[in-house]
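re the bet — no i am not wrong, look at it urself. input seq straight from the record:
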Amino acid sequence: MRPKVIHLIDDTKLGGVNLALESLATSRLKQHFDFKLLHIQLTQLKQSRYNADIIVIHAAMSWRKIPALLALKLANSSTPLLYQEHHYCREFVRHSVAHPYRFKLMLKLGYALMDKVIAVSHQQADWLVELGVLTEDKVARVGQAKEVEHFMAVAAVEAHSPLRLVAYGRLAKQKGFDLLIQAMASFSEQEVTLTIAGDGEDKDKLQLLAQMMPQVTLIGEVDDVPALLNTADAVVIPSRWEPFGLTCMESIAAGRHVILPEIDGLADQITELRQHQQGQFHGYEVIESLSVDGIRQAITRVKNGNCIGGCGEQRQATQYAWQKMLARWQQLLEQYR
C-alpha cells in the first residue's frame, strides 16, 4: 500500500508554488506515494488529525501561525511533519525585515516543530544554516522544479527589432516590475517593447507608471504561459528576492534569453546556465545592480548583442532538473515510510 502524503497549503495566491505541487502530485512519484493537496487556513487554531503517513506544510512562517502549527504537531504527534520553505531567503530579509532578531527567533521556533525543513535552492539552504535557525542535518536540499514539457515545445527564438521583452508573475513589490517599467523609459517603442503579464496588489501602481509609455503593455493574467513566451525574445526577471524562481526555469526551457539578478535561487540557476552554455549562446544577462539603471544597462547589452536565446543543452537541463528533484523527493519521503 502506498504511503499517504498530505500537502497542506495555506495560500491559493502562490500560483507558482501551487503549480509545482500539482506537477509533483501527478509525477511518476504517484506510483510510490498517494499524494493529496489540501488548502487550509493556518491562522485558525484547530487540532486537526489527518489520516496521513507524512504531512508536508507549505506556508509562510509567521508569529500568528506558530500556535496553529503547534496544535497541528500535537494532534499528529506520530506523523512526520515536513515544512517546505517557499517564502524566505537572504534578499527577503534585506528588503522586508525591520527587526532581524525577532524574525530569526520566529523562524527558529517554527522550524523546531518540524522533522525536516525542505529548501528550494542551495542558496536558501546555505542562508538558513548561516543564520543559525537550522543545522545542516535538519535541512533537506530537495530544490525546486516542475514539468516543462510544454515549454520545451516552444520554437527557438529568432531575434526581432524592436527587441521583444516579456515579464510575468505576481504584480507585487517582490517582483521588481516597478524598476523594470522605469528602466523602459530609456527606450523607444522602435527599440524595445515590454509585455507584463500577471495580477496583484501593485496592479494600479504599475499601470500608472506605464500610462504614458507606449512601449510597455500590461495584459493581466495569462493561462497559456508557453504561448506568451513564444512572443518574446527575452524574459526579464527583476526580482528583489526569489527563493527559487520558477519563471526562470520556464523561460530557459522555452529557449528564451533571461535577464536577471544573481541573487538567492536565481543565482543557483545562473550557475546551471553557465555549466551548460555553448559558444556565444550564454542564454542569460546578469543585472549587475538591481536598480533602474542596472536593469537599463542589462537590456541595452542584450539589445546590442549578437546572440540571443539559450542553447539546446540549457533547455534540456531543465528537464533533467525536474527528474533530479523527483529523485530527491522520493529519497526524502522514503525515510519516513
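see?? The mean pLDDT is 94. told u. also The first helix runs from residue 15 to 25. so pay up
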